[in-house]
Design a protein that fits this description.
alpha+beta; Aminopeptidase; about 40% helix; single chain; 2 domains; 9 helices
Amino acid sequence: MVSLPFADHCEPLVEGTHDRQEIFSFLVRASKKECWKYVELRPSSSDSLGESGAETSNSFFQHVVDLRPDLGALFRGLNKDSIQRAIRRAEREGLSYEEGRSEALLRNFYRLLLKTRRRHKLPPQPIDWFRNLIACLGERLSIRLVSKNGQPVASVLTMSHQDTVVYKYGASDPNFNNLGGTPFLFWKTIQEAKEQGFQEFDLGRSEIENAGLVAFKDRWRARRSILSYMRFSNQRSRPAMEGYPMQMAKWLFACMPDSLLMATGKMLYRHIG
């Protein structure tokens, strides 16, 4: 039982400590009755931690860019040697930019996502997952794509809620990484978010050990905080995710043809959250 599957964080929707403890106690009882392996809560703050019998299961960095300064100040705050230079390179290269929710944009995004997931040795989410997100979120979801002479270079999928724009999925073609497509997409997202009155750009979570991704997000002058998940487990110990079986699975994912890799993702993602 995970709250909320596929979300970086989900603060319990309660009015106070008593409500939170009552819900958590109910979930613990249900986990024993239903023989669940564990219950995991993913709060956005540490206020929800410390429940009886729970322990921290995973910790990540969360990165949020403050959009309240003017665009000039935001741009000057970006890392000059990597982010600013990449944005200017993308502008010189004449990368075209599109934003929307059309099937054509989704398919271009998905083709890039397939390349990216293969590089990470992981199966992609099913394309119907993204179609469902578009159907459910409507105008609160945007697919952003940059291309070079009609060739998709990089794409991101963002969502919005209240005063925050959230970067959720990203993909790119490594053959065009030198064109600065991904930084250009992030900057276009910031510009449009400012125009629409948003105050924060949530860059999502990063594994603490992933120094490269953490450094990339730091270069946007994002505020970094710790995101900790809380778990009550009915097992004495958690099985290790990495090891020979996982290494073999990743090797297979990297070698599979596209059709089989997509079919694997469709089969597996209902069991992953």
